[in-house]
Amino acid sequence: MNKVFQQNRIVTIVMSLVVLGVVASSTSMAGNDRVSGRTVGMARTFVASSRGLDAMGLNPANLALDDRGSTVTFQIAPLGLKVGSDFINYQIYQDYFTGVDSIQPDGSTIRVPKQLSDADKQSILALFPGGIARTQANFDISEFGLSVESSVLGGFGFEVSDRVALNLDIPEGYVQFILNGLPPNGASYSLDNTAVTASWLREYNFSYARLLPFDLTIFNNISVGVGVKVIQGFGYFGTDHYKGVLENTVTHDPVSGSIDNSQLHAAVDFLQYRASFPDSAIANNLFSPLGKGTGFDVGVSSSVMFPALRFGVSVTDIGSINWSKDTKAITGHADMTVTNVTDQSVQDSVKNAFKGQQFDTTGFTTTLPTAMHIGASLQVDEMPFITSFPGRLLIAADLDFGFNNEPGNATTPRFALGMEYRPVMAFPIRLGISTGGRERFAFAGGFGINTPVWDLDLATESLSLLTNPNNFRYASVTLGMKFRI
To answer: Taking CA 412 as the corner, what is the angle to CA 37 and CA 15, rounded to the nearest 5 degrees?
Structure first.
């Protein structure tokens, strides 16, 4: 039995290192692309409600619409940051990872590791809804943005931005193995659908929109827009596919019933791509991209029946990037049965199988995070039957459909509902909720100081910290300033 216990401990340590290695190799590229305080404060509703620079990269059609009377709007270095994970929350951390008090013979108290019960393990595994724990980190900064709106010429926009994003999916099989090891009756742990995608992209976005000179039955004030993006890629890591299993089989002595033999079966099949500078060379290559590509945004926006109700549709980030410099392929394929896991060469074989081998490649192509957005907005105080209203109230709702799982994107649909209330024009208050996507649920809020010549907006999608702090999993902040002429 001591031999089996020793095998459990060694393999658990090996697999723990594998998991940590996957995470550590990817988090250096974490980031996000949310820079509009108005949009984020309304739970990222934008299809029908965005205006001016807030419409860049989201629905270019809205560039042709009036943006609070401004002809020219420009911004310098607004930024957005969001990090979060299903993998842990504050309550789980407090309950299981801070230890418990233990009274010593001399009467003193120290913290010692907590021994997990079956119920404790189930609570930890509940962090994996659908069997997968999602982690994402996003950072977005717009170095410069400019929009011009003219009733004669239409709306123009130009923006330079850096978008850095990470998606990390960890199946519950890893944690099941760490918690349970190799049980006496055997077990099987699936590692399928492990996925890491991370990228650093720079965009030069040129967008144009125009109001159509005609109406269509109930649709009026119709605007259409298009954005063309020149993309430069400065780093990428992506999982093409990943299948893996770790299981043990146990045979028992037919007479005594004790464990006679324990075997570990490990199998893995994966392919990953990467393009990256050496860490020491990043600062010297800020204008020397590893990949290049082109992207497109298209959108339409229209009032429906009356001006207060507006509907919009957009498709963003249509296109791809060709990575042609410093590219690598990482592949792993193994199917082995191990009987003596205490042997160092056996341990090395298991670790190398899950680590894979890296090869130089001539290049590879990735798609942009293409998505479709459908939304509507209602300016409540401008409804025909509203004769008096205290301030201005805008309500917006969006549906987002991602077409891939590239960094910053998700194939899980997302619904968002947001509002902006202005008791006076200079002080907007924003709230919103969203469900779906990689975040699953978010409670957003924000406020601003908006004058005729400049706007200051602050927002977060982490108001759940106030309403449900024990299950808090995400941190988000967006800050930006615009100047108006």
So the answer is: 100
